[in-house]
Amino acid sequence: MTGSEPGAAQAPDAGTLGAHVTRQLLRLSEIAGLPDVDSHIYARTLVEALGPVSGRPLDLPPPSDSFLSDDHTPVEYSLSFEPGRAPTLRVLLEPGAGAGGLARSGRTGLRVLRELAGRWGVTTTPLDELEDLFFPPSPEGPLALWCALELRPGGVPRVKAYLNPAANGPAHAAKTVRKALKRLGHRRAFKALPDGDRHLFFALDLGDWDEPRVKVYLAHHDLPAAQVGGLSRMDDGPEPAEIEEFLRAATGPETGADGLAGDGGPQPRIVRRPLQTCHAFTDTAAGRPGGFTLYVPVRDHAPHDGEALARATALLRRYGMDPAPLQPALAAVTSRRPEDGVGLVAYLGLAHQHGRPPRIMTYISSEAYEVRPPAAPVPAEATAGR
Ligand code: TRP
Questions:
Q1: What is the position in ligand 1's atom list of the atom closest to the CA of 363?
Q2: Given this model, what pLDDT does residue 232 score?
Q3: Which of these ranges, 2-6, 152-156, 164-168, 346-350, has the smallest mean pLDDT?
């Protein structure tokens, strides 16, 4: 970002990260039914938000060891499905990727986010109120600042900011979350949260949301499926059986009786990312979360993306959502066959929020740098004609 005119960015050169994500975003936008003009605005915005790393040739290594995606691409897409409508396209990005260290990444991220927010007439007040908590002089942890844009028609996205509870050291993460919630007026929210192994993200909806949420993400390692079902602290939230079912369907048949750790057979046991939950708070008086989401790292439970796609498709159908856009969405980001790698579908999420039907989110990797090989290669003839 140079502070120049909105949208004044040059089209990125071929073979750069910017060109790669531009192509992906334009194709995904079409699948999500966004008007052409908006798609182009959003693609330019993405390139600008990434800043100098947009111009980085793809044959160089990733700009930083971003935790945002497995291959360190500082961009990830997602489609959020609801019954009876086209999925909503969102893009998650690390605006400070390649800035050189967490402190700089945070400063760059804040500057970029504020500039974008100003352009869209979005207030950053909640973020400003928390700056000292999440942006100490010598931050620690896996990220400094991410932002997600929900790409709705009209060229002005809904904005979300993701902050790092471990910024003051992992040992202080819980305290940082508690303070942040309190500062935003959610005095009783911290106590309402379930136990978890780690506070991963603290997220803020910024600007024009019907009900802006403050969200707390927790990681859960090796939790039996039956207990995962009981993690929601929403009033009138999902039944434990529903959450457990979703988990089982997303993790697949390899899942052992404990819900997660298949015995791995003769293969070395893969190290799996934890499950994540997110509790969303809107009403400061309520003290209870109005939303609960479960995220399953499907890529750590499937041999290849063909299987991840099949599980996502089955789940979408089960919830009365049209899975048709998903396969084309994968083809929009890569020309490889889903069976030839694993990780293109990074997570499957199930979101419950008061006053809305459940949503299913599919997280789609950009794979700008690397494809994780499938656990068991599938011969081409086995999938021919699909
Ligand atoms: N890459 C990180 C992870 O796998 C963070 C992340 C990216 C993430 N997209 C996500 C976490 C979607 C949960 C859901 O944990």
A1: 12
A2: 98
A3: 2-6
pLDDT higher than threshold 60 for residue 3: no
Query: Looking at ligand 1, which atom is closest to the CA of residue 219?
Result: 15
The Cα 104–Cα 345 span in angstroms is 30
Residue 47 and residue 53: Cα distance in Å, rounded? Answer: 9
Cβ of 69 closer than 6 Å to ligand 1, yes or no, is yes
Joined together, the tokens standing for residue 88 give 């909503």
The rounded distance, in Å, linking the Cα atoms of 50 and 102 is: 15
What is the average per-residue pLDDT within 336-363?
Answer: 97
Sequential DSSP letters for 175-236: HHHHHHHHHTT-TTHHHHSPP-SEEEEEEEEESS-SS--EEEEEEE-S--HHHHTT----TT
Contact 116, 159 (CB under 8 A): yes
Q: Please compute Rg for the chain using Cα positions.
A: 20
* Among 271, 276, 367, residue to substitute to test ligand 1 (most atoms within 8 Å of Cβ): 276
* Protein residue closest via CA to atom 8 of ligand 1: 68
* pLDDT at residue 220 is higher than 90: yes
Residue 137 near residue 103 (C-beta atoms within 8 A): yes
Task: Provide the pLDDT for residue 386.
Answer: 47
- CA of 92 from ligand 1 middle (Å) equals 10
Burial 39-65 (b: 16+ CB within 10 A, else e): bbbbbbbbbbbbbebbebebeeebbbe
Task: Give the model confidence (pLDDT) of 76-133 as tens digits.
Answer: 999 999 999 999 999 999 999 999 999 999 999 999 999 999 999 999 999 999 999 9
C-alpha 145 to ligand 1 mean position (Å): 13
The verdict on the CB of residue 77 being under 6 Å from ligand 1 is: no
Which residue has the least CA distance to atom 5 on ligand 1? 68
Distance 381 CA to ligand 1 centre (A): 33
DSSP symbol at 113: H
